[in-house]
Structures are given as structure tokens and as C-alpha cells.
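Reopening this one. Same input as before:
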Amino acid sequence: MWGKSRLRQIKVGKAVPARVLEKTRQKNIVRYLKAVPGCKAEVRTQTGYGTKGGADILGCINGRHFELEVKQPGNKPTPLQVRWLQEWAECGAITGCVENVDMTRQVFRDHGLEI
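Same output, byte for byte:
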């Protein structure tokens, strides 16, 4: 017989959406950016010898460098990541912290580029 310990309760209510991994978010954004004319983008490879705090995505659009930090919804960049983005912004690069393609498009719109 089935003991109480082996029975599972079924919860009825709203379905919980599957969580999208940060790596998948990065790939989706890069895939979108690569489809934009005049844009080159790639995920910064993280090796044990990489620069700490470097943004997840880097590239160039119409001659302008960009650095994008990808985060899960509700997460914030670390102080080191914030400093990295600020330093690039001071040099004239397009920078931002994004969660998805829509937020990425908004970062570029904020810099006068409609993509």
C-alpha cells in the first residue's frame, strides 16, 4: 500500500513560468544583435584569466562600441560591474544592464539608435 510519505499533494493554481537561464538570455540578445545591419556582437568568454567585472556582451554598432551586462529579473550588477560599465560610458561607449531583447533595444534607443 501507499503510505502517507509516498503520496504527493497536487497544488492547484497559477502555473509557474520556467526560469530562463542567464546564458540563454545572453544568446538570445546576441542572436538579435547579429541580425541588426551594421552590428557585430559576441558573448565575452569568461575564463579563469579574464578581466573581472567585464560585461557579458560586447560589440560594435555603426562604429560605436557597446558593453551590456545581462542579469536575471530582479538581480543587480555588482559594484565591479557597475564600475566597468561607467568607465566604458565615460569613453563614449553604449552601456547598460539588460534582461532581454526589449531592454536591449531600449538601451540603444536611449543612445539615439533605433534597432
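So the earlier flakiness isn't reproducible anymore. For the record, The domain at 16-45+52-110 is CATH 3.40.1350.10 (Trna Endonuclease; Chain: A, domain 1).
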